[in-house]
Amino acid sequence: AYDKVVVLTEKENSGSWKNWKKLAVIPNPITHWTGALSQCEEKVAITAGRLAPMKNFVGLINIWAKVVKQHPDWVLQIWGTGDMQQTLETKIKQLGLERHVCLMGYTNNISEKMSQASLMVLTSRSESFSLVTLEAMSVGLPTIVYNCPGGISSLVKDGETGYLVPLDDEDCFAERVCQLIEDSELRKKMGAACAKESKKYCIENIIPQWM
Q1: Measured between alpha carbons, how far is 119 from 9 in angstroms, rounded to an integer?
Q2: Are 78 and 57 in contact (CB under 8 A)?
Q3: 64, exposed or middle or buried, with CB in 10 Å at 0-12, 13-18, 19+?
Q4: Long-range contacts for 195-200 (Cβ within 8 Å, ≥24 apart)?
Q5: Which of 112, 100, 22 lies closest to 61, judged by CA?
Q6: Chain centroid to CA 1: how far?
Q7: Is the pTM above the cut of 0.70?
Q8: Lower Cβ count inside 10 Å, N or C end of the chain?
Q9: What distance separates the 2 farthest-apart alpha carbons in the chain?
């Protein structure tokens, strides 16, 4: 017998689970704190994840093609490895984005890389919790994400810590990116709000929930 079933977000505390007394909601903690916060001044946007279809990096490259028409001095870094490496390389070349989109490969310290960027962008079509978004928030990066199925909407507060964009609306996504590129004060304000919000998820606050 068991005492509790634990889910990650309040969104999962619904449907067939609703009002079930053995259900508890405990989010994942963030355990790797670099101590360094982004100044949100570098002309770099960053994302990370497996180079797999669900992460929709092809869609993100399409979005970046729209962004660089207005802001050709900004660069998108995609960190991660996976089966779609060649597909993404081909897409970048087709759109002439070799100087604007960089496939960075693997890193064991994504928080450090994030602290050197100014925006976090994520175009996943589904995310159960999105620890990478939480990692970006912890270093003070404003986050622009698709409002996809899963728990990402429990992390990102639309208009406060970043933007939740309707799923697959590439034009709206590009507009939100350009808005934060053009408004450095808003970018820094959202970044500070992200750093503050992420404190809720530090391991010192999560362990007592398990206890």
Answers
A1: 24
A2: yes
A3: buried
A4: 195/37, 195/137, 195/138, 195/139, 195/140, 197/137, 197/157, 197/161, 198/30, 198/134, 198/137, 198/138
A5: 100
A6: 37
A7: yes
A8: N
A9: 59
